[in-house]
Amino acid sequence: MKVLVIGASRGIGLEFVKQYRAEGHEVTATARDEAALQTLKALGAKALPLELLDAKSCAGLAWQLDGLQFDTIWLNAGVFGTDVAAPSAPTQAEFDLVMHTNVLGPMRVLPALTDCLAQNAKLALLSSRMGSMALRTSPNAWLYRASKAAANSLLKDAAIAFGGRASCVAFHPGWVKTDMGGSSADLSPAEAVASMRAVLARVGPQDNGAFLNFDGKLLPW
Ligand SMILES: NC(=O)c1ccc[n+]([C@@H]2O[C@H](COP(=O)([O-])OP(=O)(O)OC[C@H]3O[C@@H](n4cnc5c(N)ncnc54)[C@H](OP(=O)(O)O)[C@@H]3O)[C@@H](O)[C@H]2O)c1
Questions:
Q1: What single DSSP character describes residue 172?
Q2: Domain limits at 186?
């Protein structure tokens, strides 16, 4: 199987690379610094530089992927940003970092994937249940929540645009022990990634446009 992981320097993204490589799959993965690119190469992945905040870097992704076809794509890169609770205004810089990474980033990457979808490909966006409107009970981190709600909207549009060629889903990975999730989180990256990989392996056209928990349960938007 041919796998692409966008944002694979650490945390959940790096764990995807490790698990797919351990099973001998052909993995292409992106990172934005040289040390991380070397780590990915050492794992046997094809490592591509990608900085989501840089339009030129994102534009370069299309030609770096030229001619490649992927069965499985994980759009993983994301930031939590400053934990501003409603109704406190984020600064312009706080807003730009989170929205540019979590929303503009996928909007720049998805076009580059148009010609890279193998027959019946599966494309998964790492969202968060914090982006769900239906599950909303807290006003904390409203900037991150807004960015993941917007990312969910992108996933729905991608599901329509790519439907018939690929099955596109959004995932909540669980609360995962990474730099973002912190050490008190519920799941190790290994547990979360193993579960999401197994769920995505079962995803088909009937699931196109779904929002899934890491264990496969359907989440409300
Ligand atoms: N951990 C959780 O509990 C949790 C819960 C819900 C959803 N999620 C989502 O799951 C995904 C992965 O989270 P994680 O916990 O693994 O986070 P993480 O440990 O903070 O890793 C974030 C990844 O995104 C990359 N990234 C960030 N900004 C980027 C940019 N501008 N350009 C390219 N790459 C960029 C990072 O690269 P660098 O190393 O270069 O910064 C890193 O590879 C995120 O989308 C997150 O929102 C996580």
A1: E
A2: 2-213
